[in-house]
Specification:
Blueprint (H helix, E strand, L loop, with lengths): L1 E10 L6 E11 L4 E6 L5 H5 L10 E6 L2 E2 L6 H7 E4 L12 H11 L4 H14 L15 H15 L3 E5 L7 H16 L3 E5 L3 H4 L4 E6 L2 E6 L1 H5 L2 H7 L5 H11 L11 H8 L1
Parallel strand pairs: 3-8, 3-9, 6-7, 7-8
Antiparallel strand pairs: 1-2, 1-4, 4-5, 9-10
C-alpha cells in the first residue's frame, strides 16, 4: 500500500538548510494500523505530509498504491487514496455550515450532487454528528470539530487515513472519543497512520515507528517498544503506566513475567 525508499527531505532557508528526514525506508501493508512517535523536531509531521504529496521528497521515493508521489500526473490519484486529519480542526474547517464542510472535498472531486448528499449523511452518522449538520462549526467543541474533520475524510472514501496528532488539543474525554473512532475505521479495513505524543494511544496500534533526528530508529510491535522501559525513558518518552509500574516492581524484586503492557496483564500477574 505504501512503500518508502531512501526518503530524504531538506528544508531550505536563508539561514541554512535543515535536514528533516534522512534516509527513511519502510513499507506499510493495506489494513495496517501504524503509530508514529517521536519528540518535537524528530520529523513526524514532515513524514506525514509526504504521504499525500503535500511535501515532495528532496531525494528518494514514496509510492502510494503503486503511484509515485513525485510524479505530478499522479497527484490527484494519490490524494484520492490518502486522507489527512491534523491536530487543529480550526485550520481544516472551511465552510460556515457543518454539512457544507464535510462536502467540500467531494465537490472538489466533481462528485455528483446526489452522491455528495448520500456520502455526507453517511459520514456524519459514522462520527455521531448527524444532529449537528446544520450547525455552524464555531459553535462546536474541539472534539466535535475534530469529528467533523474526520467525517470529511470518511466522505472522501480514502483507503488510507493519516492522523497527525489529532488529539493534541483535546481533553481526555475528547481524546478517548477520537481514538475510538480511529479504531473503528481500522476495524472497517482502513489503513491507519497515527502520529501522537500520547503513548497510551500509540500502544493501541499494531506497529510503532520511533523517530529521532529525522530517522526511524525502531519499528516493532507496541509490546516490544513500550515494555523496553529503560530505553524509552532514555529517548525521552513516557510509557504506558502498567509497563512502567511493572518495571518498578521488578526492581523491588517482584517476580513478574516480562513484557507486561496493559493494566489487566499487570493485575493478573500480581494475582
Amino acid at each position: 500500500m505504501i512503500r518508502v525508499e531512501n526518503l530524504r527531505h531538506v528544508y531550505k532557508s536563508s539561514s541554512g538548510d535543515k535536514v528533516a528526514l534522512d534516509g527513511i525506508n519502510f513499507s506499510i501493508d493495506a489494513g495496517e494500523f501504524v503509530a508514529i512517535i517521536g519528540t518535537n523536531g524528530s520529523g513526524k509531521s514532515t513524514l506525514a505530509k509526504h504521504f499525500n504529496a503535500l511535501l515532495l521528497p528532496t531525494s528518494g521515493k514514496i509510492f502510494v498504491d503503486g503511484l509515485d508521489t513525485s510524479d505530478e500526473k499522479n497527484l490527484w490519484r494519490v490524494r484520492e487514496n490518502v486522507g489527512m486529519v491534523f491536530q487543529n480542526p480550526d485550520s481544516e474547517i472551511v465552510a460556515a455550515i457543518v454539512e457544507d464542510d464535510v462536502a467540500f472535498g467531494l465537490e472538489n472531486l466533481g462528485i455528483a450532487p446526489e452522491k455528495i448528499r448520500e456520502r455526507v449523511d453517511l459520514a456524519l452518522d459514522a462520527v455521531n454528528m448527524s444532529d449537528y449538520k446544520k450547525f455552524a462549526p464555531n459553535k462546536l467543541s474541539g472534539g466535535q470539530k475534530q469529528r467533523i474533520a474526520i467525517a470529511g475524510v470518511i466522505a472522501m472514501q480514502t483507503k488510507i487515513i493519516v492522523f497527525d496528532e489529532p488529539t493534541a488539543m483535546l481533553d481526555p474525554q475528547g481524546r478517548r472519543e477520537i481514538l475510538s473512532m480511529v479504531k473503528k475505521l481500522h476495524a472497517q479495513g482502513k489503513t491507519i497512520i497515527y502520529i501522537t505524543h500520547f503513548m497510551n494511544e500509540a500502544a493501541q496500534a499494531q506497529r510503532v515507528f520511533v523517530m529521532e533526528g529525522g530517522r526511524i530508529i525502531r519499528d516493532d510491535t507496541p509490546r516490544e517498544i513500550f515494555t523496553d522501559v529503560r530505553e524509552m525513558k532514555r529517548l525521552g518518552f513516557d510509557v504506558p503506566i502498567a509497563a512502567e509500574l511493572a518495571e518498578r516492581l521488578r526492581q523491588k524484586k517482584f517476580k513478574l513475567p516480562p513484557k507486561i503492557l496493559t493494566a489487566n496483564e499487570l493485575v493478573e500477574a500480581l494475582k
